[in-house]
Write a structure and sequence with these properties.
The structure holds 3 protein chains of 3 kinds. Helices cover 37% and strands 18% of the residues of chain A. Chain A is of the alpha+beta class. By secondary structure, chain B is an alpha/beta fold. In chain C, a hairpin with a 5-residue loop joins strand 1 and strand 2. Classes of the chains: A alpha+beta, B alpha/beta, C alpha+beta. Chains in contact: A-B, A-C. Chains A and B meet through helix 1, helix 2 and helix 6 of A and helix 3, helix 4 and helix 6 of B.
Chain lengths: 552, 162, 91
């Protein structure tokens, strides 16, 4: 993985010193809250309902065990012993004190981490596929380009006061695990007919109150031109994106208003002027960064999958877990293992300091000292020897990190909702908990099969409800919480926005409504192989509507 | 009100004439884009330096052919959150090779000084004289930069290559 | 219905209520209750004094019910602010 060199360290030290001075000026009253707010936001510090909340970037989801230990220590020292992983591969702390921020940022810098640009109208943390470098279906490692984008976008002088926030995601596999079509810019790495790697560039995707699936602006972009092309898109957006209405300020609105063809022309015209400048990446620079992401020292191992399956025959719990929580590796004898942060005992994405420390030890022992954070708010060990998998499962189970529900209905994405968030209209976590409790039965969970259920506590859609196969949006009506459903959303390579079912349900009715949706799916599906999404696409909304609201 | 130019406090020879009905007969002045378009001949006939202000919705393309007449271009920030002029500065420097003074006016914050420097803005109208010391401190906030721009600073990528 | 002033402290962001002596109390029970509109606007004006601009962030009036179980903000959002998340901290 990437390691800071002297220049990265110098930069971080200067950033920490700058923010320490800004905090001091605010505390002494030299600066008003209005002046200070954008500065703290650009360091990831929000004021939420109960306290300050700090969002720390995990660049493209990649963490070392040492970093995870550092994050655990920060939770212990400055917060209440836990953290929350978000859908954008960040970790959030909920109980931060402003006067402790300079020391906290100093501690973060020691583990090569920070909260820079995790908020504000600037380029946010670049996200990626959690299986990068390991998955059997990967074409090219996206982390190389994510790191180049991370450096380019950090304190970009021209693009730090954009009309609105700006999110970039990169993937290098045909199966999209990074939701690239729901980003302001999505980059898809693939090989052309000559076998050379390049990008398909998507632009103008996003969620929030106006969800849009991104459109292809370029079918082929040479990696060497990546930064100049990104800079051209950002410049057109910075110049022409709306600034009069924050709900219409994202690039998706500009792309839709301009039309993708005209938008492409504008970008090309800007790109022509800057293509041959220092933004041009040469092979030497790309290879220099690629070296950081060299594969770990894999052993030559026999395929052990038959033995794992045999273990499963003796142990149903292991069998179910193996089926749902692991994925194929590119190297024989290895497996990708997902750690579920969706136990019914903890809010989705939450992890305690003790779990972080124990996970760091397991990463050292079983996964070359690294791990990933993924956009479904779980953790991933990318390089586990198959021969170790049974033992690892036992240890994960003891930590409550082995709920066998990855990609299942209880693997819920949920934002913090009204329990923490100043923007929320309704709670998300208690709804997630109730649904998880209802579907704790493993047979039911696996009978329902592959399904994403996403919950947001307001229109801003941090819980990705638009792209959940089942989406739940919390709204407030006359002081009461109500929950509206959408069906048929997807965030993968077949990205789609869900359709509204109809009127919302009260807190007490939500879980039964989910139950009715799932029963309808089971009645309607052709066979057990047909997923919820496939069935919905085939039969449409009508039977679900009838199950929810009765025949009209 | 003070002017910081190229890192030091400077005397401002210019009078802002953007809101004056009658243009001063003599002395260096800064006019609005409208004034420039309306009184072009009269302004060119004056025996003094001329500057023009671009509002945040006035793209530098509108003065591209006239740049040789201006001793300075002032870029207006109506609110510190309106970042369009960062791009205008780069277009003026990189695409139109404008080499004279680029001045930030309006809601310009201390914390934005370095961003502005890096896109080519070299002069700042600042409010309140006692801020001057802090502006000097802020100018030294960073010594390393990831992005290559044309402000003369070496990017980290180039430093790594030695 | 009575009103109170709620805010977050600048130093640590914690929720506080303006009390009768002008200080900020952590417990809703210790905050000053304004029984009418005049008292409420005076309370809000006090909370926005220049001295307070450096102590708290975004003070605002909230409506409060006095019940047998103590004071309860009528808006659920403010109830959660006053009493904490409805889910327990995992840590």
């Amino acid at each position: 993985m990437y390691r800071y060199d002297e220049f990265d360290h110098t930069f971080m030290a200067e950033r920490v010193a700058q923010f320490a001075r800004q905090v001091a000026r605010r505390m002494s009253g030299e600066m008003t809250e209005e002046q200070f707010r954008p500065l703290r936001l650009m360091n990831g510090l929000y004021l939420q309902l109960h306290a300050y909340m700090l969002r720390v970037n995990v660049p493209y989801g990649s963490l070392s065990s040492a970093q995870l230990r550092g994050l655990a220590e920060i939770a212990r020292k400055y917060d209440r012993n836990y953290g929350h992983f978000t859908t954008r591969q960040n970790i959030q702390y909920n109980w931060i004190k402003l006067d402790e921020m300079p020391a906290l940022l100093g501690d973060l810098a020691k583990i090569e981490m920070h909260g820079i640009q995790s908020s504000g109208n600037c380029i946010r943390n670049t996200t990626s596929d959690q299986y990068a470098g390991a998955s059997a279906d990967e074409i090219e490692d996206p982390r190389v380009y994510c790191e180049i984008i991370r450096q380019w976008s950090t304190l970009h002088p021209e693009f730090s006061y954009l009309p609105r926030k700006f999110k970039i995601a990169v993937t290098g596999a045909p199966k999209d695990r990074a939701a690239v079509a729901l980003h302001d810019i999505g980059l898809r790495l693939y090989h052309n007919a000559e076998g050379k790697a390049g990008f398909e560039v998507l632009v103008g995707g996003g969620q929030g109150r106006t969800p849009v699936i991104a459109k292809t602006i370029r079918k082929w972009l040479e990696p060497e031109d990546m930064l100049s092309y990104l800079e051209a898109i950002l410049r057109v957006y910075n110049l022409w994106g709306r600034r009069d209405n924050k709900y219409k300020a994202r690039i998706k609105i500009l792309v839709n208003a301009t039309g993708i063809d005209e938008f492409r022309n504008q970008v090309d015209s800007e790109w022509d002027k800057i293509k041959d400048t220092k933004l041009q990446l040469d092979a030497q620079e790309i290879e220099r960064i690629r070296a950081y992401f060299a594969s770990p020292a894999y052993e030559t191992l026999p395929d052990y999958s038959a033995e794992l399956i045999a273990h499963g025959e003796q142990n149903t719990a292991f069998k179910e877990w193996l089926k749902s929580n692991t994925a194929a590796h590119k190297i024989t004898g290895y497996l990708i293992v997902n750690l579920s942060l969706k136990s019914p005992k903890q809010p989705p994405g939450d992890i305690t300091s003790e779990q972080m420390l124990a996970t760091a030890d397991l990463a050292d022992h079983y996964n070359f000292g690294e791990l990933r954070v993924n956009h479904r708010q779980n953790l991933t060990f990318t390089d586990v020897r198959q021969i170790d998998v049974y033992e690892l499962w036992q240890k994960l189970a003891a930590l409550d990190l082995a709920t066998p529900n990855i990609g299942k209905v209880s693997d819920i994405i949920a934002c913090p909702g009204l329990d923490y968030c100043a923007l929320a209209n309704a709670r998300s976590i208690p709804i997630a908990e109730r649904i998880q409790q209802r579907f704790e039965d493993i047979d039911r969970l696996h009978d329902v099969g592959e399904l994403s259920l996403n919950i947001s506590g307001c229109m801003n859609a941090c819980g990705h409800h638009h792209v959940g196969n089942i989406g739940i949006l919390g709204v407030e009506k006359k002081g009461q919480e109500y929950y509206q459903f959408t069906l048929g959303g997807s965030s993968t390579e077949d990205a789609a926005l869900g359709d509204r079912t109809g009127p919302g349900f009260s807190t007490d009715e939500v879980v039964n409504a989910v139950d009715r949706i799932l029963n309808t799916y089971i009645e309607q599906r052709d066979d057990i192989e047909e997923t919820f999404l496939e069935t919905y696409r085939r039969v449409g909304m009508a039977p679900f509507k009838e199950a929810l609201y009765g025949a009209n | 009100m003070a002017l910081i130019k190229d890192g030091v406090e400077a005397k401002d020879s210019f009078v802002n004439a953007c809101h004056l009905d009658t243009l001063p007969a003599s002395g260096d002045i800064i006019v609005s884009l409208d004034q420039w378009n309306d009184h072009r001949d009269a302004l060119l006939a004056r025996d003094a330096q001329l500057g023009v202000t671009l509002k945040s919705d006035q793209h530098p393309d509108s003065i591209a052919d006239d740049l040789q007449h201006f001793a300075l271009v002032a870029l207006e920030f109506p609110a510190f959150t309106d970042g369009r002029a960062y791009s205008y500065a780069r277009i003026l420097r990189d695409q139109y090779s404008f080499a004279k003074e680029l001045r930030a006016v309006g809601d310009v914050l201390l914390e934005q000084l370095l961003y502005m420097n890096r896109v080519g803005i070299n002069a700042f109208d600042i409010v309140g004289d006692n801020d001057l010391e802090q502006w000097k401190v802020a100018a030294a906030d960073y010594t390393v930069w990831y992005q290559p721009t044309n402000d003369g600073r070496t990017s980290i990528r180039d430093l790594r290559r030695g | 219905m009575p009103h109170m002033v709620i805010a977050n402290t600048l130093r640590d962001g914690r929720v506080v209520f303006l009390s009768h002596d002008g200080s900020w109390a952590a417990a809703i029970a210790d905050g000053e209750l304004a029984q009418n509109e005049t008292a409420a606007s005076r309370l809000l004006a006090d909370s926005k004094s220049s001295a307070n601009s450096n102590v708290v962030i975004d003070p605002q009036l909230i409506e409060v019910n006095e019940t047998d179980h103590g004071r309860q903000p009528t808006a659920y959002r403010e109830y959660i602010r006053a009493y904490g998340p409805s889910v327990r901290n995992p840590g």
